[in-house]
Amino acid sequence: MTVAGEAIDRHSFSLTQYFVCLKGIVWREALRFIHQRERFVSALVRPLVWLFIFAAGFRQVLGVSIIPPYETYILYEVYIAPGLIAMIQLFNGMQSSLTMVYDRETGGMRTLLVSPFPRWWLLLSKLLAGTLVSILQAYAFLLIAWFWDIEAPPLGYLTLLPALLLSGLMLGALGMLISSLIKQLENFAGVMNFVIFPMFFASSALYPLWRIKESSPLLYYVCELNPFTHATELIRFALYEQVSWVSLGVVLGCTLAFLFGAIVAYDPARGFLARRNTPAG
Amino acid sequence: MKPSDVAHTAALEIDHVSHRYGARLALNDVSFTVRQSSFTVLLGLNGAGKSTLFSLITRLYAIRSGQIRIFGHDVANEPGAALSKLGVVFQSRALDTDISVRQNLMYHAALHGIASKRANELIAEVLDRVAMTDRSLDRVGNLSIGQMRRIEIARALLHRPRLLVLDEPTVGLDIKARADILDHVRGLSTVEGIGVLWATHLIDEAGAGDNVVVLHKGRVLARGGLGEVVGQSGGADLRDAFNRLTGAADQDELESAR
Q1: What is the pTM assigned to this prediction?
Q2: What is the CATH number of the domain that holds B149?
């Protein structure tokens, strides 16, 4: 036997090693995030523009009546804050998937997928890493919003956490699924237009659904079917220490479905990589 | 597998592998073996199918037809066992330029389930091996291309693979950096006993003791020791042999197309 013969011969990993792998992927995502300050700033500026400008302009136009989970009349700013948090996560999910497409075109994705861990674990770890970054962004936004007099009950900031985790996973899994369907970076701008904007506008993020129902019943049903509406409502209720059970169910179901789709898509035997018509390198 | 068999198991076996992109046949019944402690040069022009073969070895694409085994482990059926013995240097840049050399290597260790204490030992070892210990805290973005290549090789060796595959590892390097890396990796096969598959389009990268596989338009035209390949083709040297082999293959193709 040669020196290299002492190579690590195990190939069934222990639970600890699965955790080491997860930790490594999360840690790398965090490092990237720290080193790309523009990404953090732009992730914050986007919702703040909506909050400071859009909401200020529209508060006189759109009255919001008392609907759950709110117990009093609220300002329009207060109404759209949860939707803007969901928007942060939507952008983050799509941005992580942009990173994946970019990674795939350079070597980062290859580095990840050549790891001997099962591919579903690698993708799940990557997804969790992106979600944790989006949660950081969401709390940074809430901190600034707090100075803008958008205050939730103190405990609400804690009950928000599991909701953010779940909605972040759902939107991240959706982004991952979409990234597997895109062949090249150029197509991504189109996906932004066809995914992000329709999802955001056809939801309860900017206006309560009963108002939409008054103007267009059809649009109302579209909004009801939009998973983004349920991510928004899950966040809205959690911020006020409540649970929207329907939204919880929808978000949970969609998370599992998108995640399953993404894992299948990244499976070399069945997914898009096998169907691609052009060599990668 | 008996212990006595282990030493004789091929590091890499490519067994009748074919691969299509739609109608185009990128690999046509490719077979060859990389023995342990051997240095095998996979020689082919751009578009010969080298990168496709790498994508199959590293399980980026599914193997549709044929088998690939790494130390006897089928890549399709036992990917974990196969990939844990494999180190890869990809053609495209695969390091994070924003973070440090050490952080890149830590990430790679985690992808192999190696926790920080052990990882630190292994990182010190591989950096020493590629003579980059003093650069471990530098941002990868501040390194030269040659240094990045060395870090990529260090990374590929971190989990102590017994098979190292490199896809055009000298692209973009100057003559000296090229020779250094080639010498270094050749040393890995002779001294450390690692099986090496070195894919290149540069004929002069194949040396006297190497095995050579000539890949052209998805087909293996010749394989064996460098001397054998040259001898069989009737050429004077490898360049001549390569031109004769590929020329004859193109001629055949032209005639069969008529």
Answers
A1: 0.86
A2: 3.40.50.300
Tell whether B216 is covered by a domain.
Answer: no
Give B-chain residues touching A116 at CB under 8 angstroms. 79-84, 112-113
The secondary element (H helix, E strand) that includes residue B213 is strand B211-216
Q: Is A1 on the interface with B (CB under 8 A)?
A: yes
> How distant is the alpha carbon of residue B110 from its chain centre?
22
Give domain status of residue B104, yes or no.
yes
Strands B73-74 and B65-70: antiparallel
Contact B169, B198 (CB under 8 A): yes
Domain enclosing residue B126, as ranges: 87-160
**pLDDT tens-digit profile of A237-276?**
999 999 999 999 999 999 999 999 988 887 766 555 555 5
According to DSSP, the residues that pair with B18 across neighbouring strands are B65
pLDDT in tens, A23-82: 999 999 888 888 878 878 888 898 999 888 888 887 776 666 778 888 888 888 899 999
Order of all β-strands in the sheet with B195-200:
B86-89, B163-167, B195-200, B39-43, B211-216, B219-225
Q: How far is CA B137 from CA A147, A161, B103, B161, in A?
A: 39, 35, 8, 24
Residue A9 has pLDDT above 70, yes or no: no
pLDDT tens-digit map of B225-238: 999 999 888 888 99
- Residue A21 is nearest to which of B83, B106, B111, comparing CB atoms? B111
> How many structural domains comprise chain B?
1
Which of B97, B78, B95 is closest to B86 using CA atoms?
A: B78
Q: Is residue B133 part of a domain?
A: yes
Percentage with pLDDT > 70 across chain A: 84
Contact of A218 with chain B, judged by CB distance below 8 Å, is answered with: no
ipTM: 0.86
A 116-135 residues inside an 8 A Cβ radius of B: 116-118, 122
In a domain, B242, yes or no: no
